[in-house]
Amino acid sequence: MIDFDSSPLMDMPSLYVVATPLGNLRDLSARARDTLAAVDVVAAEDTRHSQKLLDAFGIRAQRLMAVHQHNEQQTAGQIIECLARGQHVALMTDAGTPAISDPGARLVARVREAGYAVSPVPGACAAVAAVSVAGIVEGGFRFIGFLPAKSTARRTALLSLAGEREALVFYEAPHRVAECVADMAAFLGGGREILIARELTKLHEEIAVMPLVEAEAWFAADAHHMRGEFVLVVRGADAPDGLDVEAVRVLNLLLDELPLGTAARLAAEITGASRKGLYAHALAQRQ
Ligand code: SAM
Q1: Is residue 7 in a domain?
Q2: Ligand 1 neighbour 97 (Cβ under 6 A)
């Protein structure tokens, strides 16, 4: 039997990085609930938002402190002072796992540097939830998070990822998601499969799988498709015929700066791979 009466806290003062639900409150773990109730300080990305979650579970936090992207360094100092006084601190963000495209990483690094324990209280994470239903059988996945908002920078980023063999996992905001999948089709290749995970764990959860080339039209087909929060999982690149991964990586780097023919010639000279093969690969990628 699990002993729910024992303290969820460690003996020494620690920072607990607590995952909270993405939408469905039932996803808050028993350990997360007990930890948030037991610590001396809860550091939250948005204290008003987090107060609602705490209220829903009848948790009365002893002290709530705001920690967001713009004050993370300053708050780190205050949190280290709390730990020095022997207090326990929990960090939570608005939804999911702190430090995953969310504030927290700097704070964690500072606290560890200061010699205090940092302990995860794992739970919901949108990227992991989407990957868990993507059926990636082999090759693994790479978490990219948000692409740059500006179109030129986004396209450059996509181009540098085009040769990656792992599935790519992106976060995207609703107002950018349609143009983002259009760029993915153009720069990663329209034939690749994309899994669109919308509103995970919420009432209107939707999971759609299609070739990238169809994704922009899917968003345009129904206004509901564009609402909510999204994770995009794009299958990794196929192994290019006769080209090794390193040759394709070099080619992609050169393609960021040079015309296609020059990039293919230089990539062939640097890596010893077939110039014709690299050229054909770059051309297929562009198309
Ligand atoms: N730390 C969070 C995590 O563990 O997933 C992510 C925070 S990031 C600021 C917010 C982004 O996560 C959203 O723009 C969306 O891409 C993704 N996301 C969060 N909740 C989601 C949900 N319920 N369904 C789909 N994507 C979600």
Answers
A1: no
A2: yes
